[in-house]
Design a protein that fits this description.
The complex is a heterodimer of chains A (658) and B (286). Chain A is α/β, with parallel strands linked by helices and 658 residues long. Chain A has 5 domains: 125 residues, Rossmann fold; 190 residues, FAD/NAD(P)-binding domain (3-Layer(bba) Sandwich), CATH 3.50.50.60; 78 residues, Alpha-Beta Plaits (2-Layer Sandwich), CATH 3.30.70; 161 residues, 3-Layer(bba) Sandwich (FAD/NAD(P)-binding domain); 73 residues, Alpha-Beta Plaits (2-Layer Sandwich), CATH 3.30.70.20. Chain A contains 17 helices and 34 strands. Chain A has a 5-stranded parallel beta sheet with strand order 10-7-6-18-29. A 5-stranded parallel beta sheet of chain A has the order 20-27-21-22-23. Chain A has a 4-stranded parallel beta sheet with strand order 2-1-3-4, with helices on both faces. In chain A, helix 5 packs across helix 6 and helix 5 runs parallel beside helix 14. Chain B has 2 domains: 120 residues, Up-down Bundle (Glutathione S-transferase Yfyf (Class Pi), Chain A, domain 2), CATH 1.20.1050.140; 151 residues, Rossmann fold. A 4-stranded parallel beta sheet of chain B has the order 2-1-3-4, with helices on both faces. The relative contact order of chain B is 0.15. Classes of the chains: A alpha/beta (658), B alpha/beta (286). The interface between A and B is small, with 12 and 11 residues.
């Protein structure tokens, strides 16, 4: 619709329409609507004040559109629920009727009024004041146009565990390029360490390797292993990423992956992938099916690189691929969206001082036991205990080792341990038929498809479940003693075991936490990355263009991880479906006449959206990065920085209504 | 030389004389002085578990009030005294406890000047002196002596109040032993109960509790045990079936004394069972 021609007045009086929503009885049950309408109707500039049972419904929106036309409104206030819910709904409705959508404001009289009291008179008074204040704001609102920016339709995926792999494949299969960065020499993450997966008991390697192979060969995926994200600049749609490719000392172009070097290497490492069960070599690949299947040298344990002697690998390499003078390299990539799939680590069980982890060799964590069960593990899948290689005849599994423990560990439930402990006990009994498995638990939680049945299978298999916390684990002779309580029988128990497996808490990968801090994306108190909304925006972050997948966001099992990764990919693809991105125009702006370039704004900005141009000594706002929080406007000592549609004038006039 | 107000407690004047004597002399060697409070009374012996029993707190409060006139730190050695004084001090300072705190202070004649930080001797060594500095004062390293550090319950619990170390796997004494040149052994029963006062009426229970601790230390290859609690020392040392001199139970101050070069007559072995002198001689430490 055409804008109304300017009236021949010195200053055009605003024509405000106020629409009050009942929200069923949510608002109308507390706020006295007729009284509110009466009070609002006599406020200056208010041309019309109407109510409706549900303003967000089609007829409700139509009422607003009709009124804009018939009453010639140029400002709209909708008194309803929180703007996070329906601001967009009503702004779109206004835009359809020809009003600039930024001249529609929400007066929240539900969450901040009706829901917090049962006193009808007070609620009505407060609702009146909220509407009056919002009216003062809307009268100052200028018509604004949304900012649009181009999109670079390439994605970066950080972390190539099953979450990163899934997200990368989904995006790449839709035809977009993906840069997949992994800090380890090969992809697959923790899933490559697992033996079999609950509740179906399919082999983890067997279901993972088709994905890793596909990832490695995919023409749209640029795989960067043994690399880490160093820095990210730019904004949604247009990120610049600096990636550090760690020195491998092996030229991947000439290396054929024959593996001769691996046989001849005398250098030893602690064997991280095997969880310390066996020593690794200084030149290594994580597993025989590694993608890429080429080794790297661990500089700290390489005899040549530390002492200048040896050089065996270079001598035996048939293609001359070993280069001891290799250094870290930096690569810059440009992408439009970033999926953070940085994964988990296990809580350091040595911090549980009474559990003997790290002191008693036959006390291992869940991942180490996976390696003992795995056909590709150090014992080829035979269960042998670390201390003397004997087959353990009795194993005690300790659940919640560090989980649900706000004193010594983490307060949350790690979610996967009940199931993987049941699985490990079942697999142990498959391997050792006369073996006895006891599981000490607090609660058994089985909220997944087929989980309860799987737990039943474990109990039917003769696995003993003992309800109570374990207080102490120590070595006595060649036995491991476990002190626990049996809370069902009401007694203390002492168990004599050959081996103990701790279901250690899942914690956010420390490297992921460090990256999140560097990228200034939100993390919770435990280092897990925070989603934009716990229910409705579970894979987005508050930083536009960053998406989440996998255990970096919180503990989860494989199916849930894969589902979340696909969801993150879908969000990226939805973004790539646009030609340009729109961004809210309610950003900060600088009055260059006043600005002296002091830089308070730059230091205040959490989004790197304000920079001082050193040559001109003026602050410059990058509107595409600005989230419109207003912090810089508050920090500015001269008043040069203002927030569009939340100017000081507007805010003072809002305050003056009281 | 730094000077600390020192509260010895009754046992250190009787059965645990060596814990006290070595501590004073060794302190001078490593660079601080223990200035015993001119007057002091019973620490309260065990912390009263009844939360509203004010009378039981008066003794310790009186000690704290006296100490508050002498300085802002009060050093203890006996684990039981330390536990009681620390917990009562905590109760006085606890926000929300002001009324009770004022009542307690009015019970005693001495003016309560300020909040006193109750520090164990080990905390002074670790935080104020530093194990590196102590290392430089060692004249006779406890080379190759395998020592199990036994903390007992009173030093570490309740964790939030004592703020001493990890309650399950404390390290302070292990670190001290390492600084003195000894090899601290792994040990699973660092903070398990020695039987405590059950030695009085259920000697059998105390005996089995202390034996379990000794057996575990032996299994880890320990040649000696160090402790900071007179009652622990008594239970571990005196309830043994065979006092054959194996696995002597020392106060940590005795081994500290050996390392910093105190003479045999200053180490006070009269209350140690077996033949600790012979043991140290065979180890080349005396």
């Amino acid at each position: 619709m055409m804008q109304e021609p300017a009236e021949p007045l010195k200053k055009k009086q605003p024509r405000v329409g106020v629409f009050v929503c009942h929200c069923g009885i949510n608002i109308a049950g507390v706020v006295k609507i007729p009284e509110l309408l009466e009070r609002v109707g006599i406020m200056p500039d208010v041309v019309v004040a109407k109510d409706y049972k549900y303003c967000c419904s089609d007829p409700g929106q139509q009422m607003i559109r009709d009124s804009i036309n018939s009453d010639k409104l140029d400002r709209v206030v909708v008194a309803c629920c929180s703007p996070t819910l329906h601001e967009t709904t009503f702004r779109n409705a206004c835009a359809e009727a020809g009003l600039n959508s930024y001249q529609c404001e929400i007066a929240n009289i539900r969450e901040q009024c009706a829901w917090v009291t049962e006193d009808k008179d007070k609620a009505t008074d407060k609702a009146t004041e909220i509407v009056r204040t919002t009216k003062a704001k809307v009268e100052n609102d200028l018509p604004l146009d949304a900012i649009t920016v181009p999109i670079n339709k390439r994605a970066l995926v950080v972390g190539a565990g099953i979450a990163g792999i899934q997200a990368a494949l989904d995006i790449a299969n839709a035809g977009y390029e993906v840069v997949l960065v992994e800090k380890e020499p090969s992809i697959g993450g923790h899933m490559a360490q697992l033996s079999e997966t609950f509740p179906t008991l399919d082999c983890s390697q067997c279901i993972l390797t088709p994905r890793t192979v596909e990832t490695g060969r995919h023409p749209k995926i640029k795989l960067m292993t043994y690399s880490e994200v160093d820095a990210v600049s730019g904004y949604v749609g247009n990120f610049k990423v600096k990636i550090r490719q760690k020195a491998r000392y092996v030229d991947f172009k000439t290396c054929t992956g024959c593996g001769v070097c691996l046989e001849k290497c005398p250098g030893r490492t602690e064997g991280r992938f095997e969880r310390g069960l066996t020593k690794g070599k200084a030149i290594y690949r994580l597993l025989p099916q590694a993608v890429p299947n080429k080794p790297v040298i661990d500089a700290k344990s390489c005899i040549y690189l530390t002492k200048g002697k040896c050089g065996n690998c270079a001598k035996v390499c048939p293609t001359g691929a070993i280069h001891y003078d290799d250094t870290d390299k930096f690569v810059e990539e440009e992408v439009g969206a970033i999926v953070l799939a940085t994964g988990y680590e296990l809580f350091d069980a040595a911090r549980l001082g009474s559990y003997g982890f790290g002191l008693v060799p036959d006390v291992v964590d869940g991942l180490a036991f996976e390696r003992l069960l795995s056909a590709s593990g150090p014992t080829s899948g035979e269960v042998k205990r670390p201390s003397d290689g004997k087959t353990p005849k009795k194993i005690v599994f300790v659940q919640c080792a560090g989980s649900r423990d706000s004193t010594n560990g983490m307060p949350y439930c790690s979610k996967i341990c009940c199931m993987y402990t049941a699985k490990q006990a079942i697999l142990y009994r498959h391997r050792v038929h006369d073996g006895q498995a006891t599981i000490c638990y607090i609660d058994v939680r089985t909220p997944g498809k087929g989980f309860e049945e799987f737990y039943k299978r474990a109990t039917d298999d003769g696995i003993q479940y003992l309800r109570g916390k374990v207080s102490k684990i120590f070595r006595q002779g060649d036995k491991v003693m476990v002190w626990a309580s049996d809370t069902l029988a009401g007694r203390k128990v002492e168990l004599e075991a050959d081996m103990v497996v701790l279901a250690t808490a899942v914690v956010a990968n420390p490297d992921g936490v460090a990256l999140a801090r560097k990228l200034k994306t939100q993390i919770d108190a435990h280092g897990f990355m925070t989603e934009a909304h716990p229910k409705l925006r579970p894979v987005e972050t508050l930083t536009a263009g960053f998406f989440l997948a996998g255990c970096g966001q919180g503990p989860k099992d494989i199916p849930e991880t894969v589902a979340q990764a696909s969801a993150a990919a879908a969000k990226v693809l939805a973004m790539f479906g646009n030609t340009r991105l729109t961004h809210s125009p309610t950003t900060a702006q600088v009055d260059e006449e006043i600005c002296v370039g002091c830089g308070y704004c730059e230091r205040t900005c959490a989004y790197d959206a304000v920079k001082v141009d050193a040559a001109r000594k003026k602050a410059v706002v990058n509107a595409a990065l600005c989230e419109g929080c207003g912090a810089c406007a508050v920090a500015c000592p001269s008043g040069a920085m203002t927030h569009k549609n939340a100017t000081k004038k507007a805010i003072f006039e809002m305050a003056d209504t009281f | 030389m730094r000077r600390y107000t020192y509260y010895p407690g009754c046992t250190l004047y009787t059965k645990a004389r060596s814990l006290d004597l070595c501590a004073r002399k060794a302190a001078e060697k490593v660079g601080f002085e223990l200035a015993e409070m001119p007057t002091w009374n019973c620490c309260g012996a065990i912390y009263n578990a009844t939360s509203d029993d004010l009378a039981a707190q008066v003794g310790p409060v009186r000690n704290l009030a006296k100490a508050s006139q002498l300085g802002d730190k009060l050093v203890t050695l006996c684990a039981a005294c330390h536990n009681v004084l620390k917990r009562v001090q905590n109760r006085l300072d606890q926000p929300g406890n002001e009324v009770e705190s004022e009542r307690l202070k009015t019970f005693v004649d001495e003016r309560y000047e300020r909040s006193v930080r109750v520090m164990h001797y080990l905390e002074v060594l670790k935080q104020d002196i530093g194990f590196e500095a102590i290392k430089s004062k060692v004249v006779k390293p406890l080379a190759k002596l395998k020592v199990a550090s036994y903390y007992g319950c009173l030093m570490v619990r309740p964790k939030e109040v004592l703020e001493f170390d990890d309650a399950e796997n404390p390290q302070v004494m292990d670190d001290l032993m390492r600084a003195l040149g000894a090899e601290p052994t792994r040990f699973d029963f660092k903070a398990e109960c020695c039987g405590g006062y059950l030695v009085v009426n259920r000697r059998d229970v105390a005996k089995s509790a202390s034996h379990r601790i000794l057996d575990n230390a032996k299994a880890w290859g320990a040649e000696a045990i160090v402790t900071t609690c007179p009652l622990c020392q008594y239970n571990l040392d005196k309830l043994r079936v065979v006092t054959d001199g194996s696995l002597p139970v020392f106060y940590f101050t005795q081994l500290l004394g050996v390392a910093v070069g105190l003479g045999q007559d200053e180490l006070g072995f009269e209350h140690n069972a077996g033949d600790p002198i012979e043991f140290l001689k065979t180890k080349g430490l005396l």
